[in-house]
Design brief:
heterodimer; A: 71 residues; alpha+beta; Alpha-Beta Plaits; two-stranded antiparallel ribbon; two-stranded antiparallel sheet; 2 helices; B: 255 residues; alpha/beta; 7-stranded mixed sheet
Amino acid sequence: MAKRGDVVIDIEKCKGCEVCISACPQNVLAVASEVNNKGYHYAVKVNEGCTGCANCAIVCPDAVITVYREK
Amino acid sequence: MSENLIKPENLVYKKTDVMTDRILHYCPGCAHGTAHRLLAEVIDEMGIQNETIGVAPVGCSVLAYYYFNVDMQEAAHGRAPAVATGIKRVFPEKFVFTYQGDGDLAAIGTAETIHAINRGENILVVFINNGIYGMTGGQMAPTTLQGMKSSTSPFGRDVKTMGSPLKITELIAQLPGAYFVTRQAVHKPANVRKAKKAIKKAMEYQKLNKGTCFVEIVANCPSNWKMTPVQSNQWMEENMFPFYPLGDIKVPEEN
């Protein structure tokens, strides 16, 4: 079984470009219906499928995603 | 619900401290942010934060000095390789890089770029090619593709009157002063990993004192291409990559 992971998204820095969403192999991320202070629909985690592969974080132009993975 | 994974020992990826905490001014989905981060990560991994001097261009990335936690110098439009030449000659033991867009490097700064590289100045040039002038409102750049629409070529670039797109990277690869020339992209995880390796290699070659290293990053410009970031990455794959194929163009001979 794949290792479990988790992501923390700095929603105030997120610009809602959705590049992370198409990069996630597990379809864990989606766009929030709410907006941040700048008016962007930020990315959110919508399920527990994260494996901590960090693909979302390495394509994020604004470096807003921090990734954790169980040891 | 399972136990909390968010603890320091489980950390696999976080923003490097070589980038400042400022919010980038770039548009959503712009490849500049990713390229900045890769360069910062390479500097972090090599432990050369105190020995690196960057030269920022004019263009969208004119404010690059806000985002790198290293010594930075702003250059006049297109003159970054000339300024970097001076810095490197005064501080030959420092790692010097320039970060330039296509309007800066391939248009107004062509002379400085070609001559600095022809002299084999021992610097790293990072070239962001999005085929358009981003900051000033999407005008046609030398690298704009044939038939591509921009605000100054609204019916598409016509090569008869406007010339052909300039493959500046291939041009530079022919110069004897160029040591390592490569073209990469940063729109997908695999490309990001490859681009980071290329930047790292280029930065490490600077220790050898063998000539200029040149890393082109083919980039998107969602705002001026008038697409969403994901669409622009798709468009880049379909249109930019056939004309600007990814891969190493000049690699050092093994000896």
